[in-house]
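wait is this the right file?? whatever heres the structure
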């Protein structure tokens, strides 16, 4: 008997609701005529887009639906809304669970031999949305220059090199198909609904900036440990629910295949503390600092399956 079964019926209902609300946001974007309407839709999509990503995150861990084939198919569909290839995001995220807080993924530190300016740009890129923009750009890179995504090309940056080293060549074909699908999907939406490109980009920036800003807030300044280098956070109860309890992040790192519906219960059983997300986000602006403490990635060289 499975102790924590996948709530696949609920997950499918949530996915359907997310797609419906996405359609409404896009339709309203096509009707927006003034800047404040676009700004309001950007805020709405900041919440909705992160909810869609949270469901894709379930697919990355194989816990959206019980069937792996359907799980990955739905993940690919959800990736269109990011937009980025699901199988590239999946490998990056699963690799994060191996590299977290090691020298291969410690964005709040720089070491002897590192370029401090690059480390500052890297962290501030995460805080301001540039990280998301780079991932979106990967749709084009995997189509016209996949040779760029190699450890050799990124040897100037240890975290990026470690990521490239973990990529599995068996997924390149589907990654390219997903990238082509993402580009086609958004071009068709803009064309068919006659949405001004600047309005569409403005709405998507609401998601991109907010998603990127939260990508290291659960880890900044934590213990240099692959599991314990994470924290549970809270923002606002309705938003935390819409984001499928993604902010119960330490509990997630302790049990990566635990479905989202059980995260609060399991966390409370262990009396795990929660802290206010915005305070930690603000604290990240102090930037990276130099350290002589090294933590090796004991999973270095592992290829994601």
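ok assuming it is, sequence goes like this
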């Amino acid at each position: 008997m499975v102790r924590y079964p996948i709530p696949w019926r609920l997950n499918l209902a949530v996915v359907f609701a997310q797609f419906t609300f996405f359609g409404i946001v896009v339709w309203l974007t096509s009707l927006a005529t003034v800047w404040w309407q676009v700004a309001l839709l950007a805020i709405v999509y900041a919440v909705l887009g992160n909810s869609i990503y949270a469901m894709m995150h379930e697919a990355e861990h194989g816990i959206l639906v019980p069937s792996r084939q359907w799980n990955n198919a739905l993940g690919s569909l959800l990736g269109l809304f990011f937009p980025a290839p699901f199988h590239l995001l999946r490998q990056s995220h699963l690799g994060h669970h191996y590299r977290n807080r090691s020298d291969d993924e410690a964005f709040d530190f720089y070491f002897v031999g590192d370029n401090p300016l690059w480390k500052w740009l890297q962290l501030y890129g995460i805080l301001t949305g540039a990280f998301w923009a780079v991932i979106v750009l990967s749709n084009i890179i995997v189509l016209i220059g996949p040779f760029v995504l190699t450890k050799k090309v990124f040897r100037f940056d240890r975290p990026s090199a470690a990521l490239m080293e973990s990529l599995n060549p068996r997924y390149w074909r589907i990654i390219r198909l997903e990238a082509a699908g993402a580009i086609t999907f958004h071009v068709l939406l803009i064309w068919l609904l006659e949405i001004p490109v600047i309005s569409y980009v403005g709405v998507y920036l609401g998601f991109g900036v907010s998603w990127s800003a939260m990508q290291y807030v659960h880890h900044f300044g934590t213990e240099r440990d692959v599991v314990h280098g994470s924290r549970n956070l809270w923002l606002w109860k309705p938003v935390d629910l819409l984001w499928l309890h993604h902010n119960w992040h330490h509990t997630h790192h302790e049990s990566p295949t635990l479905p989202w519906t059980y995260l609060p219960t399991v966390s409370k059983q262990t009396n795990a503390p929660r802290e206010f997300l915005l305070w930690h986000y603000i604290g990240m602006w102090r930037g990276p600092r130099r350290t002589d403490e090294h933590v090796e990635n004991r999973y270095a060289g592992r290829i994601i399956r």
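Strands lie at 109-110, 232-234, 274-276, 289-290. so i think its the right one actually
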